[in-house]
Amino acid sequence: MLNRVRSAVAHLVSSGGAPPPRPKSPDLPNSTSAPPAAPPQAPRSPPTRAGSGTAAPAKTVEARASFSRPTFLQLSPGGLRRADDHAGRAVQSPPDTGRRLPWSTGYAEVINAGKSRHNEDQACCEVVYVEGRRSVSGAPREPSRGQGLCFYYWGLFDGHAGGRAAEMASRLLHRHIREQLKDLVEILQDPSPPPLCLPSTPGAPGSSDSSHLVGPQSCWSSQKEVTHESLVVGAIENAFQLMDEQMARERRGHQVEGGCCALVVVYLLGKVYVANAGDSRAIIVRNGEIIPMSREFTPETERQRLQTLGFLKPELLGGEFTHLEFPRRVQPKELGQRMLYRDQNMTGWAYKKIELEDLRFPLVCGEGKKARMMATIGVTRGLGDHNLRVCSSTLPIKPFLSSFPEVRVYDLTQYEHCPDDVLVLGTDGLWDVTSDCEVAATVDRVLSAYEPNDPSRYTALAQALVLGARGTPRDRGWRLPNNKLGSGDDISVFVIPLGGPGSYS
Amino acid sequence: MLNRVRSAVAHLVSSGGAPPPRPKSPDLPNSTSAPPAAPPQAPRSPPTRAGSGTAAPAKTVEARASFSRPTFLQLSPGGLRRADDHAGRAVQSPPDTGRRLPWSTGYAEVINAGKSRHNEDQACCEVVYVEGRRSVSGAPREPSRGQGLCFYYWGLFDGHAGGRAAEMASRLLHRHIREQLKDLVEILQDPSPPPLCLPSTPGAPGSSDSSHLVGPQSCWSSQKEVTHESLVVGAIENAFQLMDEQMARERRGHQVEGGCCALVVVYLLGKVYVANAGDSRAIIVRNGEIIPMSREFTPETERQRLQTLGFLKPELLGGEFTHLEFPRRVQPKELGQRMLYRDQNMTGWAYKKIELEDLRFPLVCGEGKKARMMATIGVTRGLGDHNLRVCSSTLPIKPFLSSFPEVRVYDLTQYEHCPDDVLVLGTDGLWDVTSDCEVAATVDRVLSAYEPNDPSRYTALAQALVLGARGTPRDRGWRLPNNKLGSGDDISVFVIPLGGPGSYS
C-alpha cells in the first residue's frame, strides 16, 4: 500500500521537477511525452502488428502510476485485478481472440507469491520501423533509396525495488535501439563493407559523391574489417547505455528508484540478436538440442570484474569493503591467522595472513541465489538503480552494477528451422526452478500435442512453462509435482518460434 | 654481437649491484645462489629423474651469460655451437643415450632464422619434491605423517628482448611453485576439505589438537567449498606473481631486461595443471580429438581487459594513448567526422564524432600477429619486462602486461589413456604455422610408425613437429612443403605422453 502511495505521488510530480532531458538527437525517446502510436512510416510489407506500451491506449494517471501490465495482454480492469492477485496467481496470456503477437509468439506471466505488491516484471513485443536519417553520405535521399528497415523486438524486464524501471525500459528501450539504428539504415542494406569513417553530421549538407566517405584507400595503416552484424551489436550496446543514462536523468522527477534486468531479442535482416543484462536467460531449443543464448550476470559470474574495479578504484569501496574474497566472513579474533582468499586475478585459492582491512565486508560474498555484491544486490548488470546505496551507507552500488549487455548473435539463415524450434526467454522466476533440459522436455511435450500450423501452440507452451515453475498451492506453499517449492517470484516467459520468420522478413 | 657484449657485461655485474632479495620464506628461490642439485629429500618411489637447469653442471661465467640451452639436452661445446647456428637450424633433442626425460617426454627445439642472436626460448623438465613445512596445525610432524609430495613439471619460456628472463624463469619458476606448495603438503594429502583458516605461522608452536584449525562450525555465516584442486591452482598463480616480483627486484643487478611468455605443466596427485601467460599454447590430442588446454593472451584476446585498465587508470596512458579502439589510425584531417570505435564495454562497433584526444595512438591496434599493445608488444601476459617502456617514451608497459597465468585442469584419472594420447606444448614458433589439426595429424602419423612401447616415439614426434614448422631452406627462405614460409622464430616443443603416468604417480 505504501508503495502504491509512493507511486501515485511519484507520478504527480513526474512532469514537473525533472531536469530537461538532453536529447542526443531530435527524436530521442522521452518518457514524459506521449509515444507515437504508429511508426512514422509504414514498412513496405506491413507485418503483423501487435500492441505494446508504445501503442497503448490512454490510461488514467492513477492506473499507470500504480500498476500496469503489458498492453498486448489487453487486460480489462477486472483482468488487471486478477493479474494482481497474489493468492490466485492466475497465469496471464494474450487473448485468443484479436491480433496475435508477431511470429505467433507465445507469452505467459504470473505474479509473485507476495514478495512484492505488484508484478515487477514487464514485457514488450513490437515491430519497429526504422526510418533512415538523411543519407549518411550527406546526400539528400533519392526516392528509390533509403528505404527504412524493420526489426522485430521482444523484451523481458525483471524489476527490483519497485516496478518503475522495468516499466520505463519496456516502453523505451526499443526506441533507443531504433535511434541507434537510424544512422545505419543505408549501411546495413548495402552489401559492401561498412565505411569506417563518415562525414561530420548525419543529414548535414554534402554532395552525393561517395568520395566523402573516407575509404580504405585513404589511410596509411592496416585496418580492421568491421561487419554489418557488429554494427547492430554496437547499436544495441549503446542503446542500453543511453536507456540507463535516461533513467539517471529522469530519476528525480519520475522516481525511477529501482532497477531492472533486461533481456531483449532483436531480429533484423536474418539474424537474431539476444542482449542480456542481468539474470534472466534465453535458450534456443532446436530439434531437441539446447543452445544457450545468454549468460547470467551475478556476483559469482562477475566476481573478477567487480574485484578488479574495487582494486583499481578503492575509493569506490569507501573503506567499508575489501576487494578480496574469502570463503566465509573473517572474524576479528582471527587476526593474524591465515585464511583462504582470492584476489581479482586468481581463480584458485591461497592462504594469507589476516590483517585489519580483511575484516571489512567482502565486495562479493555468498553463493548461488544468495550471492550478493556489496551485501546489497544479487545481480551485477541491469538498468536503473541510480539511487541504490549500500544498506545504511551512502556508498553507491552503481559503478559496480553495469548497464552493458552481452549480445549473442544467431543466424536464422544457417539452418532450416521447423515449427518446433523455439527461442525461450524467461525471467529468473522460470529458471530458478526449471533446468534447460526440463524446458526442452516441455517444449517437446506441449508442441507435439498441437498441429504444427496451430498458432496457439506457442502460447500454450509459454503457459505450461510458467505453470510448471509456479506449481500449485499445497502444504502452505506453491509446490511442484515433486513436492519441491515452486517459484514465488514473478515469472514471465516468451516463446518465439524460429520456423516461421521467413514469411515476415 | 652487441647483444653478446651486453650479456657478458651484464653477467659481470650480476653478482654485485643487486639489492638484497627480500625472501618471503627462508628458502625462497634465489637466482644468485647456486641451486641445489638434488631435492632436499628423496621421494618415496624415486621416479625417473632427468637433468635440468637446477641440476646443471657448473658452467663458466661466460658460457652462462652469453648463451645457454636446457641442460637436459646435454650439449657439448660443439653441440652448443651447432644449436646456435642460424644457417643450419639443426633440430636439438635430448640424446638417445643416457637418461630419458620423465614419462619418456619428447622434446625438440630449433633456433630462429636470424631474428635474434641466440635462441631465446628456454625449457625445463623436472621432478620436484616438496617437503612439507612443519605441520600446518602447528604440531611437530610425526614420523608417520607429513610425507612430502612429488610433482612433475614441464615449462616452456619464450623470451623477448633478450633471453635472460626466459633463462631465469626456466631455472626458478618451479621452485616458486614448490615454495607455494610447501604449506599444502599435509592438506593435499588429507581427503577432508581444506581448512578455511590456519593458525598464524606455519611451524609456529602449537598443539596437535585440530581444534586449532578454525573449522566450519565456528563461523556464523555460510561458507564456500574450496577444493584441493583450487589450492594447487592458487599456488601456481601466486608462484607466477612471485617469480615476476623476483625479476623486478633483481633486474638491475642481473640485467633481466627482457621478458618471457611462460607455459608450464604441473602433474600432481592425478591431475594435470596447465598454466599459461603469453602466446605459447598447449593442446591434448586424445584418440584423435583435440582438447585446447590454454588460450593465447594477445592485444586482441585481451582488448577489453587492457581498455578497462586504461579507462579506469587514464594516468597509465600518459596522455599518449587513447583507450578507445578504432578500426584504423585516426588522421588529424578527420577531426569532426564520425569514425567507428569501440570502448572497453563493447564487442560491437559504433560511430563517434572524432575529437582531439581520439588522435592519440590507440592502446590496442593491429590484427593477428601484428596486433600491438601501446605500439610496443604483441603479448599481454608474461614474466619480466619491468624496464620495458613505450618506444621513445618513459611510459611503462608493465601495468598492462600481466604476470598472471590462466590455469586449466585436466583430470588424468577420468579417462583411460592410451600410449598415443599426448599433451603437446609449443612456443608460438610452432603454432604460427601449424594448426591444431595439423598437429593431431602429425601425432597420428609419427606415433603409428613406432611400437607403442618404444619410448623414443615422443622425441621423434617432437622433432617432426619442429621440422614441420621450420621447413627446409629453399627459394631464399625456410619453406614448408606447400611452399609457404616456415617459422623463422625459435621453435620449442614438448610432447608429454598421457598413457604412462600411472606408473609414476
TrEMBL record, chains A, B:
It comes from the Eukaryota. InterPro entries: PP2C (IPR015655), PPM-type-like_dom_sf (IPR036457), PPM-type_phosphatase-like_dom (IPR001932). Residues 1-104 are annotated as: Disordered. Residues 104-498 form the PPM-type phosphatase domain. Residues 36-46 have a biased composition (Pro residues). PANTHER family: PROTEIN PHOSPHATASE 1J (PTHR13832:SF305), PROTEIN PHOSPHATASE 2C (PTHR13832). This is Protein phosphatase 1J isoform X1. The gene is PPM1J.
